[in-house]
Amino acid sequence: MGMQGDFYQLLKEQGYKLGSSGQVGTGHALTNATTILAFKYRDGVLVAGDRRATAGNMVMYDRTDKVLEIDRHSVMAIAGVPATAYEMVRVLEHSFKYYRRTQLQELSFDGKLRAVSKLLKENVPAALAGTGAVVPVFAGYDMEQGSAKIYFYDILGAEFEAVEYAVSGSGSPTIRGILHYLNTWGEQPLSALPEEQAMVQALRLLTSAAEFDSATGGVNREASLYPVIKLITGAGVQTVPDATLKPLYESQVVRYV
Amino acid sequence: MYEEPYRWVEAVGNRRQYLDEQFKQGSPVVALSYDGGILLTTVSKGTPKLYEIYDRLALGGMGHPTDLEKLRFSLLEMAHVEGFNRSPSDVTGSRLVKYGIAPVIKQAFEEVYKAPFIVRILVAELGQKPEKDALLTINYDGTFEETTGRAVLAATQVVQTKMMSYLKEQQPVPPSLEQALDLALRAWAIGSLAHQQDEADQQAEAKPQTSNAGSSAAAIPSSDTLIAHVRSIAGERTIECAVLERQAPGTSKYRSLKPADLSRLLPKAFQSAVAN
Questions:
Q1: What is the pTM of this model?
Q2: What is chain A's percent helix, strand, coil content, to nearest 5?
Q3: CATH class of the domain comprising A38-252
Q4: Among A135, A202, B6, B218, which has the minimal tally of Cβ within 10 Å of its Cβ?
Q5: How would residue B213 be classed by pLDDT, with cut points 50, 70 and 90?
Q6: Helix or strand or coil: residue A163?
Q7: Where are the domains of chain A?
Q8: Given an 8 Å threshold on Cβ–Cβ distance, is A98 in contact with B76?
Q9: Residues with Cβ within 8 Å of residue B3, at least 6 apart in sequence
Q10: Which B residues, 211 through 230, put their C-beta within 8 Å of a C-beta on chain A?
């Protein structure tokens, strides 16, 4: 029934199946080696992620992009099994486009959230089997309400709205505490930070996560490797170029003793 | 009774006549390359006639709104499934048309006991490079043509040729968006006036009159007449414009021009024709 603008339904009718379904309960410990974070700042929402992909104690890749743009006003940051996560992003990207083009209107922000949790629910068997757990953070700008929003999920698809910030991945326990401290007793709450300060905080937070979590990649200046930082405002999603991050990192993150 | 070959040929002939009749009231569609991409223009009444199909594909149509919707959905479905299963750059206009909807339209046209699609379709494709831009038109019988630079949909072949030759004559290479818009609206007015003329001629033929001077093949009306025509019709209809912009940010290159864009881009003569 293409008339309803449901792309995922269309795919399923054609025999598509998301991920592999494993046997429930056969899984081993879930790994989600990464650090992603999102917080609201003055102009919208900032989403950032480190760039390391690991397999056990091996570093597989140091240039992963875990903060993925889904459409002009929404971003999904992924922690968990990359294969499933990228596939979900692809499904979402096409679903939102398909809805907009068939129905001649944007899918509402709530509709987008629902689509994310539907995919996660479909993925439960694989998540429990340990082959496809994904724990995303979904952030975007709700054009109807004119406000930035952040949601985080568990592997079963439950959806939680984050008031100020959300984190996910193996490095997240470290920075969750820092975010709480900053937001409560910092000079100003996160939501009042201007753009540049917000980026500095994101760099500091990811550097802290990398300090205590081996599966989180920090900044590697020799390889000019910086985290991915995206800013979402009413004007859309904007990726911060490395050229902007480099001077910020050097002047406000590095401490020379 | 259609089993006899002769009857079948006759039935298809009747069908052509019937379909030709359906487009008489239709509004022409003009597609034109400009320096930043492709422009599609028409003047619509009630239902829109220009749509986004995929990242780099746009659709313009003439005919019955429901038939157009049906085909629009099958194009959207094919494009998105292909774009998901393979990649967005594998979704090309010519594949969608040649292997996708043209055969469907042809089959519906030739199955004489079923209803045909009352549509003429134009698919515009923005290539990665300007040389790769393509414009495809499909007739109600499933025949398609691929061109570059300019393409039109109109009620009859004669009117189409007239509009095309006007565009060919006038089109600077490559025009700016403003120039293209001006030109497209003029070409639209030529087509629309020719449709009116055809109809008037047909009514005149019924009465015993000999003069056939004002047929659609006649000379191109003056610039003032064209502008006056667009103005006169714009009150009850809407000028509809969409562009595929090569430089647009993101993957979706389609954008429909809002009244505010139009009033900025349209030449002065047409300004008053923009609906609020």
A1: 0.90
A2: 40, 25, 35
A3: alpha beta
A4: B6
A5: very low
A6: coil
A7: 38-252
A8: yes
A9: none
A10: none
Average pLDDT score over residue span B131-142: 96
Element (H, E) at A36: strand A36-41
Domains and CATH numbers, chain B: 5-273 (3.60.20.10)
- In A63-102, the residues whose Cβ lies within 8 Å of chain B are 72, 90-91, 94, 97-98, 100-102
Residue A22 neighbours by CB under 8 Å, 6+ apart: A125, A126, A128, A129, A130, A131, A132
Q: Round to whole Å and give the CA distance between B251 and A166.
A: 28
- Give A33-58 pLDDT, tens digit per residue: 799 999 999 999 999 999 998 888 88
Q: Give B61's strand partners.
A: B121
Distance between CA atoms of B96 and B123, rounded to whole angstroms?
9
Structure tokens at A88: 């979900």
Of B73, B84, B252, nearest to A102 by CB-CB distance is B73
CA B7 to chain centre: 32
Pick out chain A residues at pLDDT < 70: 1-3, 20-32, 257
How many angstroms away from the CA of B214 is the closest CA of chain A? Answer: 41
Q: Nearest-CA distance from A87 to chain B in Å?
A: 10
pLDDT digits (tens, 9 = 90+) for B181-194: 999 999 999 999 99
**Pairwise CB contact (< 8 Å): B80 & A14:** no
